[in-house]
Specification:
alpha+beta; two-stranded antiparallel sheet; 7 helices; Saposin B-type domain-containing protein; disulfide bond
C-alpha cells in the first residue's frame, strides 16, 4: 500500500513521467522498427556463402538421406539464437527527443564501435526505469510475433518494418514507416 501511495505522489508531482496511450504506441513502434534494423544488421554480418544442412538424417524408401541445404542465416538455428538475444541490444538504446522538432525517438548510444554521432541532434529523456522499458517492449514484441518474424525473414521480404510493425503488430501507421521522422 505504501508503494502505491509513493507512486501516486510521484505522478502527481510530475516526477514519474507517465506516457499516454498514443505515446506508448509510438514508443513501441520505435522499438519495433529498431528491432527490425538490428535483425537486418545481424543478418548482413553472416557469410552469405555459409550453408547448413537442415534435412533429416533418416533414410528414405530407397536408402538415401533426405538432405536439404539452406543458407545459414535462414536456418531455424540461426534465427532462433539471434531472436533470443536481439533484445539485449536495447540496453544500448535510450529515449530521446529531436532538438529540431521535439518528436520522440529512441537512439542507440553506440554506432560503429564508438559514441553515436547523432547524439548531438537529440535531447535524452531522463527515464526513471533507466530505459528498461525499451528492452521489455522488445521482448514483448519478439515473443508475440516470433513465428511471423521467422517466416518473414525466411521469405526475404523487402520492407520488414511495414509488414511486422505496421500490418501484423499494428504498432506503426503506414506513413510513419514509409516516411519516418527519425531520419536524422
Amino acid at each position: 500500500m505504501a508503494n502505491l501511495c509513493v507512486f501516486l505522489l510521484l505522478i502527481s508531482f510530475g516526477v514519474y513521467p507517465v506516457l499516454s496511450d498514443s505515446r506508448i504506441r509510438e514508443l513501441k513502434c520505435k522499438v519495433c522498427t529498431s528491432i527490425i534494423d538490428e535483425i537486418q544488421k545481424n543478418i548482413s554480418r553472416v557469410d552469405v556463402t555459409r550453408k547448413i544442412n537442415v534435412g533429416g538424417f533418416r533414410l528414405d524408401n530407397e536408402g538415401n538421406y533426405d538432405e536439404k541445404v539452406v543458407p545459414y542465416w535462414k536456418s531455424e538455428i540461426y534465427l532462433t539464437e539471434m531472436l533470443d538475444d536481439i533484445c539485449n541490444v536495447m540496453e544500448n538504446y535510450v529515449r530521446a527527443t529531436h532538438k529540431a522538432n521535439g518528436s520522440q525517438t529512441i537512439i542507440s548510444l553506440l554506432a560503429d564501435g564508438g559514441m553515436n554521432p547523432l547524439m548531438s541532434e537529440v535531447d535524452l529523456v531522463q527515464d526513471t526505469d533507466l530505459n528498461k522499458s525499451l528492452k521489455y517492449h522488445c521482448e514483448d514484441i519478439v515473443d508475440e510475433y516470433l513465428e511471423t518474424l521467422m517466416d518473414e525473414l525466411r521469405a526475404e521480404r523487402q520492407n520488414l518494418s511495414a509488414k511486422i510493425c505496421g500490418e501484423v503488430a499494428q504498432l506503426c501507421d503506414q506513413e510513419v514507416i514509409e516516411h519516418p521522422v527519425d531520419e536524422l
